[in-house]
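Re: the 107-residue chain
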Amino acid sequence: MNPNRSGYPADSLSVTQLNLYLMCPLKFRFQYVDRLPKPFKPVALVFGGAIHSAIEWWHRKRMESYDPEPKEVVRIFRADFTPKRRAKSLTRMAIPKRILSIRVAAC
């Protein structure tokens, strides 16, 4: 039995996968069968990642016996939290034509 990308055997579903299928079969198909990229990344996730990067950078510099100025830490945060990284627009995504041609009621 070959495991799928989430580590489960190919003939089994996780609770999350099952709940998504019950909520919206089309969304399940896009995510787990067609494996389409998500159209955007939530801002909270990008913000948290930028905070994490800045703190990690600060910590590494401290381990190297360097005490960074707060301005430097803010610069690292801003470099990761730019409008480009906040969300991808659907218009810039490469959406396969077969997906665009599907006409179904919204879930």
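Confidence is low (pLDDT under 50) at residues 85-95.
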